[in-house]
Amino acid sequence: MARPSSSSSIISFLRQSPNLGIRNRSLVTGNHYGDVEGAHQHEQKQQDLEEIVKRVSEITRTRPRWERTLFSDFPSFNFLDPSFVSHFVKHQNNAFISLRFFHWLSSQSGFLPDSSSCNVLFDALVAADACNAAKSFLESTNFNPNPDSIQAYIRCLCKCGLLEEAIIVFGKLKEVGVCASTKTWNSALKASIRAGRTDFVWELYGEMMNSKVVANFDTVECVVQAYCDENRVSECYKLLKDGIVPGNAAFNRLISRLCKNKDFGRMSDTLHAMIGRKQAPDIFTYQEVVNGLCKAGKGHEGFRVFKDLKDRGYAPDRVMYTTMIHGLCEMRWLGDARKLWFEMIRKGFLPNEYTYNSMIHGYFRIGNLEEVWKMYREMCDKGYGEKTVSYNVMIKGLCSHGRIKEAHDLFEEMSRKGVPCNHFTYNTLVIGFCKEGKILEGRNLLYELLDRGIQPSAASYASLIEKICEEGNMENAKFWWDDMQKRGLKPAVRTHDFMVTGFCKQGCAIEGMEWLATMLSSKHRPGEKTFESLIQCLLQIDRLDYALLVLDTMLNVGYRLRISVCNSLVTKLCEKNPHPFETYLERILERN
Fold this sequence. Notes:
Elements: H1 36-62, H2 70-73, H3 83-92, H4 95-106, H5 115-127, H6 131-141, H7 147-159, H8 163-175, H9 182-194, H10 198-210, H11 217-229, H12 233-242, H13 248-260, H14 264-276, H15 283-295, H16 299-311, H17 318-330, H18 334-346, H19 353-365, H20 369-381, H21 388-400, H22 404-417, H23 423-435, H24 439-451, H25 458-471, H26 474-486, H27 493-505, H28 509-521, H29 528-540, H30 544-557, H31 563-575, H32 578-591
Helix pairs in contact: 1-3, 3-4, 3-5, 4-5, 5-6, 5-7, 7-8, 7-9, 9-10, 9-11, 10-11, 11-12, 11-13, 12-13, 13-14, 13-15, 15-16, 15-17, 16-17, 17-18, 17-19, 18-19, 19-20, 19-21, 21-22, 21-23, 22-23, 23-24, 23-25, 24-25, 25-26, 25-27, 27-28, 27-29, 29-30, 29-31
């Protein structure tokens, strides 16, 4: 398997001899006692040792500069005996203090750690998720951890997001002939999923199968997630239908992906496959179904499923209620949404910020701003109002109703109350200001957004460019167009249309044709009004030949010639020698 490059020193411990530079000692020698007195002495020494470990642990935990006085505190005790480290680490229960103690001992002349002590401290660092400290410890001591410790280290690296380091150690573990457990394989698979590296998933899974490691539910869920992330739903469906019977989570992931694809036929097949494999759909399964139907604009079907679930004895939770309320609000069914609102309260589920924002969004949808403010004030009284998402819902709704001043007041309130604005906040206001023709305010907000290092949206640029083109300032429009592309944003098709029509309004028909040609070469479909504006502009500057060329392209795209444009063409054709154009005009009328 191809692995990321890394310094070999990170994993050199895997190739070291177990006894290189390590000396084994014990605090108490001898395992057999020939008499009762010897046994008593051994027991007394163990008690003394435990007492010293307890006192040293407390000192190192509570005294700031204990390194200066520890020897004098215990003048007769031999701290240099390496096995003391093991006892100390186990009693201290703090990996970082234990590491500090180890470094202090290592600075003393005559101290040589044994492999057992190093392994105990290494395990403690790994258990504390101290990946970097564990890695540094390996490099500085050059000891050889046991296989179980190495696997725990791999899992620690995966948990901390150090996937590439984990894969390096994984590969070296295999090279020395150690086969990792299913738990360790799954840890690497999950880390690959979290990192969005499905390529690692397939490589690891392939090696796992070649190593004859037995997969379990967690393995299947990782593979299912990777298939869904790559939208390979057919392979995913086959795996769930014919492979290991996983938990519901794997089926739910596939159902979620099928809903996103609006493939409700296969979603239904997946539900039947679950039942066929004795895996009954649970409330979370149906939550994915209801959510998918609502997001796909099939809220009425989602509502039917929701009601059927209740009739069959399922108990929706707050997430399910909120999902359904949001779907009903999208459909403007506020009456049913309110019924569910009070029903969930009766069932003991108090609305949260998502439930409140769904209702607020619904009232915006039907234009009931009085109820919007009433619900918003209630949400604020419950402590949910001062959050970015709540402000964004209000700002977007107000902008959609032309209430830009109220939206901007909320924006300024966010700053006063320390609520962070995000790209959605700024982009919504930029679009809102431009929609109301307030170009200066929209441009200033866009500048502020850029100064804060927030990525603008192509829609913000499109709104600004549209209004600038309407004003006829095409140089300024080109400036913002270039700025948008420098930031890696792809202009929407309508932004191209704005540029063409903007040039036409200024009588710059040739520039308009150049922008139209760019659109067509980029496989974009210009709007019908874009063609018509350009044709009219070309006729005004007496470029009938170009006008007919644009007209031909317009008809090829699939638009029809409207009467106003047809009249302009006929008038211009009659001004010329009619004979060469009669045939062309007949051909146009036939195609139209």
